[in-house]
Write a structure and sequence with these properties.
single chain, about 425 residues, alpha+beta, Beta-Lactamase, six-stranded antiparallel β-sheet, five-stranded antiparallel β-sheet, about 20% strand, rod-shaped, GAF, GAF-like_dom_sf, GAF domain-containing protein
Length: about 425
């Protein structure tokens, strides 16, 4: 792991085509560096060192002819110079295994791990005249082991159909833990039509920032993520404060303390947009090859998780739709059966009533026609009969027009007997 980040590149630089898994791993972890340095005297003046030592500690800081504590003061603060003092004083070598060391300070500080040995240098008389450092960096091995474990855990979560938010949140925290430059991860999910991006996860970004970008459109110049989604290719913004893509979001990014954003589109196997994967930094910064490889590895993992989620969601929707259709069909069949039964009951009742009326009419047909009104007999009406009235219960009577009309108005089931057409005509034309 080198001490200095690359200088910022063009604001909208993009990565090349898809990389193989092997290439991604090589760019993520590289190869372990063997470092060598030779120090002279009790002050441990740097006399000579190999290229790996200077690359690791920083070419502009580690210089020959200067004491180590002067050009690399962080080594003294962490006790490494005191260890050299002990080796110089006792003449006994010291060996450390997988020892953590922080190189640089402030925003340039980087964590590394080494297996190393301090060997005493001796003069012709056997006296100790200096120290030799021989070491092998183990940072890459540690990170590779951690990455493989975390990645395997994410794949297992996807396989057992863990909730998408749980998988994405775990992925974001994993990446933030693997990187030493204070990266903040965000995943946005595309709407089905691919025109807007919704909040997926961003465990380390402030809530007000996540709310501000939730639902942003996809399009050219709409931040890093909106542009990456539109272009279907990575978009690197090294300095948010001076980038035209961030005009509409510069203030909220400033309040969130964000200075750089590298966004990679998450694409399905058919090329459709699933979302974006973004890596934010609090200082202007361009990505190294290892950063881009990390983004590619986890963008692929995110695509797998989102596609699996959409498949399961689609299955659930289809199953719910099928169940609803089945319920609706069952209810329709039951309603049709009920209506049919009710119709049959009404038809049966109507047939029975019609039979009763016919029977009543037949029974009355044989009776002789009375000479005076039967309907007004109670009040002593002696007017000649003009009309025969019957009802649905089979009761019938003859009456004059006045009392027959009174019966028709007041008895709901009363009607003029059909066979008495002459009486009906006389009633209508009276």
């Amino acid at each position: 792991m080198t001490a200095n980040p690359q200088e910022p590149r063009a604001a909208h630089a993009t990565t090349a085509g898809p990389a193989s898994a092997g290439q991604n791993l090589r760019e993520l972890f590289g190869s372990s560096s063997a470092v060598f340095a030779s120090m002279l005297g009790a002050e441990h003046v740097l006399e000579s060192a190999n290229a790996a030592f200077f690359a690791t500690t920083g070419h502009e800081r580690a210089r020959t002819g200067l004491p180590v504590a002067q050009c690399l003061p962080e080594l003294a603060e962490q006790g490494f110079v005191a260890l050299m003092d002990e080796v110089y004083r006792t003449g006994q070598a010291y060996t450390g295994r997988d020892v953590r060391v922080v190189l640089g300070a402030g925003v340039r500080a980087q964590e590394a791990f080494f297996d190393f040995t301090y060997e005493p240098r001796r003069g012709l008389d056997g006296a100790v005249i200096g120290i030799q450092l021989i070491g092998v960096e183990t940072t890459q091995v540690r990170h590779a082991q951690q990455l493989m474990l975390e990645h395997q855990s994410l794949l297992e979560q996807i396989a057992r159909q863990a909730p998408l938010t749980e998988v994405l949140d775990g992925m974001a925290r994993c990446i933030e833990g693997l990187t030493a430059q204070g990266v903040l991860v965000s995943v946005l999910l595309a709407d089905p039509d691919g025109t807007h991006l919704r909040h997926g996860t961003a465990p380390s970004l402030p809530a007000f920032y996540n709310e501000a970008i939730d639902g942003i459109a996809t399009g050219e110049g709409i931040g890093s993520c909106g542009t990456a989604a539109h272009r279907r290719e990575p978009v690197v913004v090294t300095d948010i404060a001076n980038d035209p893509f961030w005009v509409d979001f510069r203030d909220v990014a400033g309040r969130a303390g964000l200075a750089a954003c590298w966004s990679t589109p998450i694409l399905a196997r058919d090329g459709s947009l699933l979302g974006t994967f973004a890596m934010y930094h609090r200082v202007p910064r361009a990505p190294q090859d290892s950063d881009l490889a990390l983004a590619r590895v986890f963008t692929g993992t995110a695509a797998l998780a989102i596609e699996r989620h959409r498949i399961e969601l689609g299955k659930a929707v289809a199953e719910a739709s099928a169940a609803a259709a089945h319920r609706a069909l069952t209810e329709a069949v039951e309603a049709e059966q009920k209506l049919r039964a009710e119709a049959e009951e009404r038809a049966s009742a109507a047939a029975a009533l019609g039979g009763q009326m016919r029977d009543a009419a037949a029974a009355q047909a044989g009776l002789s026609r009375p000479g005076s009104c039967q309907l007004g007999a109670r009040v002593g009406c002696t007017a000649p009969v003009e009309l025969k009235i019957t009802d649905s219960w089979g009761d019938a009577a003859w009456g004059c027009f006045i009392h027959a009309e009174e019966a028709l108005f007041n008895v709901r089931t009363a009607y003029i007997a059909e066979e008495q057409t002459d009486g009906l005509a006389a009633y209508l034309n009276r």
